[in-house]
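Quick log. Single chain, no ligands specified.
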Amino acid sequence: MIEIKHRHSGELLRLVEADSLVEADLNEDMLEGADLRGLDLSGANLQYADLGNADFEGAKLAGALLIGARLDGANFKGADIRRARFHFGRLGTAASLTKTCFTGALMQGCDLRFVDMNAADLSHTDLSRCDFRSARLQRTLWRESNLDSALLIEADLRRADFTRARLCNANLNDASLLDTCFDEALLGSPDCPPADLNRADLRNARLRMARMERVGLEETNLSHADLAGADLRKAFLGGANLRHANVSGADFAGVELATANLMYANFSQAKNADIPAYKTHIR
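-> predicted structure:
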């Protein structure tokens, strides 16, 4: 027999007549605030369960079914959620994961398409090969996380924080990145295949000292962005909008700027910027 109790009050929430929770059927159970720390829930059915503010720290959830579950405010620190399923492959079926904490969780290759993870903390976590396409990720924290080969296409990442994150070969095409922070992030270098941010919305974004060599920024909106000290060598900026951008100390060696909108951007202290003579209203 396994007793599932509330993490704070100790109230009994569920009595499971089994020796373990592996492949347990907790479908649609009311388990808000449940204490599930360190438990093995591999392959468990948690579809549409109410697990808001539950504590999964150190738990094993590999292959668990979490489709449609309410997990807002849950703690997944150090949990193994590889191969867990959070949706049926379409909008309206995904789990709700707002204000969750995934710091240090095992998440490589996770499929988190369509989920609502607004204000979640994914800092210091290996998220390589994770799929976040079309996910709602406003105000999320990704500080010093590994997002190599992650898919963030069309994700809503407004006001997210990627400070010192690693995004080699990541795909952020068409993502909404308004007011995001990529300070000192690694998006491209000789040892880091470049990320793609084509057509992304990076208005007012901070990319100070970001390493962005060979990164795809075609038709990307970088108006009012802060690119001070960024390494943009050989980046692709065709059709990009850098209107009013701060590029002080940024390195543009090998960058074609002919079709980019540079109006009112301050290039006076930019490095290696080859600005066509016909460009006007550049400071």
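The chain has a mean pLDDT of 96.
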